[in-house]
Design brief:
By secondary structure, this protein is mainly beta. The chain has 2 domains: about 160 residues, Jelly Rolls; about 180 residues, Jelly Rolls (Sandwich). It is about 10% helix and about 30% strand. The chain has 3 helices and 24 strands. The N and C termini lie far apart (about 45 Å). Bound molecules: fe (ii) ion (FE2). The site of fe (ii) ion (FE2) has 4 residues, from loops.
Length: about 375
């Protein structure tokens, strides 16, 4: 029987009792195909996904807007990140006080953050259903305030940062020099800061990320006035990253590319999870996980972070993960063999340098990151 001791867990099971699907797994092959059912609270087809070890930490759900349809304005008491899995549309966000609307269009692979206590109306502008992934820290908030109704269309909470925001609030996120401290450590020296990212597949301003291997690069994404954050990682074809591990609640969504991840608890069974655009995977707490690119172009993943309290890894003085990576010379030989076999099935060859398997200090040269 599933454990249900957090307020949010109980609330989720109430929604499931009302007919909204509640999936419990660490992987979804394609969020665009997930079976949904009507959810009264938001007036649309929905499914919740309680990814493994995310209970009590982060909430994920998929919502659909039918072709030409719209969702009535809704006010949520916590910041919420929305990633567009399919379709294109229009958002209108406004506060109770100013009533001034901030309107913007979004498309496939856009991401945006609706600030807490702002009203948000969403419209489908395409001729097929829109699918959205919603992600927030509501479980943690409901641990502090154990009344779920406090967070939904609360008429007693009227202030939102959108009331004081300028018209640029949902303009494209900017890459800026990182000029602030963060418990997330040094994921690059530049960050991508804002409330709106138009297309995660198109972004090419990335920072080389040496310690995770594969010649990959990454950019951290920060949201002004919020503790929500994420990062996007890109790594070249024919290569795979080092295995590593950390705390729970990190949700990985694939904007583009083809590959697989292997995940396992220390000393436990290793399982393989294939991914492509629309797949979602979440490494359970302290499970090792390792990502492999089987495509002909760079693969990329969008990692939605839990609250920073759940980072769950030791760091050295420079902010890099300490002893959480498994270096290539120390991995089990079948990991390399399986990767090369899977590439061969596709007529491809490995681009992993031999020296990476013998030299513990091997450093990859930065590689092209174009994925389109
Ligand atoms: Fe990770």
């Amino acid at each position: 029987m599933a454990r249900s001791y957090f307020t949010h867990d109980v609330w989720l099971e109430d929604q499931a009792d009302k007919g909204v699907p509640l999936y419990k797994d660490c992987y979804v092959d394609d969020l665009r195909d997930l079976k949904l059912a009507h959810w009264d609270l938001r007036g649309c087809d929905t499914a919740f996904i309680q990814f493994t070890d995310m209970n009590g930490v982060t909430e994920a759900r998929v919502q659909e807007i039918p072709a030409g349809g719209s969702l009535k304005p809704f006010k949520l008491g916590v910041d919420e990140l929305i990633y567009v899995l399919q379709g294109r549309g229009f958002a209108s966000v406004y506060g109770d006080i100013s009533k001034a609307h901030r309107d913007f269009e979004w498309g496939e692979r856009s991401a945006f953050v609706v600030p807490r206590n702002a009203w948000c109306e969403l419209r489908n502008m395409s001729d097929k259903p829109v699918r959205l992934l919603h992600f927030n820290y509501l479980p943690l908030a409901m641990t502090v305030i154990t009344d779920p109704n406090f967070f939904f269309n609360n008429e007693h909470v009227n202030g939102s940062m959108i009331d004081d925001a300028d018209q640029e609030f949902f303009s494209e996120a900017k890459d800026v020099e990182k000029d602030f401290g963060s418990a997330w450590g040094k994921v690059g020296t530049k960050v991508w800061k804002g409330n709106f990212w138009p297309d995660l597949l198109a972004w090419d301003k990335l920072v080389s990320l040496g310690d995770r291997g594969a010649g990959g690069s990454s950019i951290a994404m920060y949201v002004p006035g919020s503790e929500m954050s994420a990062h996007m990682s890109v790594f070249p074809p024919g290569r795979y990253k080092k295995a590593h591990r950390h705390g729970p609640g990190r949700l990985i969504v694939i904007p583009g590319g083809e590959g697989y991840s292997i995940m396992w608890p220390e000393g436990g069974e290793k399982k393989i999870y294939p991914w492509h655009a629309g797949s979602a995977i979440t490494p359970p707490d302290q499970y090792f996980h390792q990502h492999f690119n089987l495509g002909t172009k760079a693969a990329r993943y969008f990692a939605l972070h839990p609250p920073v309290q759940f980072i769950g890894k030791d760091e050295d003085e420079s902010g890099n993960a300490k002893e959480s990576n498994i270096n290539y010379p120390n991995e089990e030989p079948w990991i390399r063999e399986y990767f090369e076999e899977e590439l061969a099935k596709r007529g491809l060859k490995t681009d992993m340098p031999e020296a990476a398997y013998t030299d513990l200090d091997y450093v990859f040269k930065p590689a092209p990151t174009a994925s389109q």
